[in-house]
What we know:
Order of helices and strands: HHHHEEHHHHHEHEEHEEHEE
Number of strands: 9
Number of domains: 2
Strand content: 5-15%
CATH class of the largest domain: Mainly Alpha
Organism: Ruminococcus difficilis
CATH architecture of the largest domain: Up-down Bundle
Largest sheet: 5 strands, mixed
GO molecular function, one term: phosphorelay sensor kinase activity
InterPro entries: Bact_2-comp_sensor_kinase, HATPase_C_sf, HATPase_dom, Sig_transdc_His_kin_internal
Number of helices: 12
Transmembrane segments: 12-33, 40-64, 70-94, 106-127, 143-162, 174-195, 201-218
Protein name: Histidine kinase
Distance between the termini: 73 Å
Amino acid sequence: MNNWVELLSFSTFGAALLLSAIGLWFTVVIPGIDHWSRRFFMSYFIVFLLGCLSNIIEVIFQYYNVPRAVFIFLLLLESLLLSLPLLMLTAYLLHCCGENIRTSKLFHAVLVLWAVFAALLVSTLFIDDFMYITPDDQYFRGSLYWLPLVPIIVAMLLNFIGTMRRRTQLSRKVFLAFIIAILPITVTLIVHLFIDVFPLIDVSYVLSALAMYSFILSDQIEQDRRQQQKIVRQQQEIAHERASVMVLQMRPHFIYNTLMSIYSLCRLDPQKAQQITMDFTNYLRKNFNAVASESTIPFSTELEHTRAYLAVEQAQYEDMLIVDYDTPFTNFRLPPLTLQPIVENAVKHSMNPNYESLHISIRTRRTDSVTEIIVEDTGPGFDLSNDSKPHITLKNIQQRLVIMCGGSMSIIPRKEGGTVVTLTIPDSALDVSR
């Protein structure tokens, strides 16, 4: 390759081939793109690959004694392959706008123009005024060389007009993608009417395709991200509704027993009756505040809610219920109705006058990157394998921990009998307001 122009042409097509391969590879491996668009871009870049390969083979064959018909076939194949993206571009534009390709006047017009181009291209084999090839496989432009280019340029202009008319139906990124895909090719083809810039046509096709691909892919990834956020919000709403149901399904016998205890103490110990009334009121207020909360709350608020509940229970069970608090770490947030239902679940299933006193321990501790809440009881324990209501409550707490703060919950039997529930809260849930 002594001629630097031929070397430049060969290098240009090699670069176009590499860009096409990169585009095809990204189309296959990158997630976040819908099935129709993935098939479109795979076809888009495969066409470019074949077009670039046919041109590289054509350049190589110029230095070998190959049949002239083979050389002409490669030349026509390259031109046809590199014109196919015009139809594909129109089809993708209509797809993005939700239009039917079969009934689209724009697509039919571009299809007719491409058919005219293909017919004129085939006629170059018989009319030297379009193009002629020398015995040493060199092609030269004829006086009518410009004629087959006109249908392609008109088709690109129609695509440009069609994109402008549909700009309100496209997102900003997709609209820019189509403009970038159309204008460079159109300008290059217009220049090619007067100057031979054939290698630049292929490069402009590939660069435009990659630009359009990157814009559309980023737009689809953004849409996918918004969809995922919508799903997360829906999950949070469901979890919040479940928390509301938990509040509304307070144990009737707990309310009944509390009110009866207050009634009895009003005569025997009015001061204690006042204290239980205050604790019970505080418990109810925290319950209904939890329903109103749609985000995480400070741990101190949840701990106060739990203390109010246990104060009411201790007033009824007296020495049968012993509670220890060791919570030096409170600077974090968690979903409402997280700690209190766990403690209530322990009291409900562990209190039995025939057993010894129930000990409940509530602790917090810090590790490398998380805060842990440990609720430990000395009750008989229970089986987590069934789907009874208490276990559904615990599963709901676990789900809300994951969704609302990225936390987790583990439940294991206590060695000496009972249950240990550990809530893990990541540092991302630290209470920065404090």
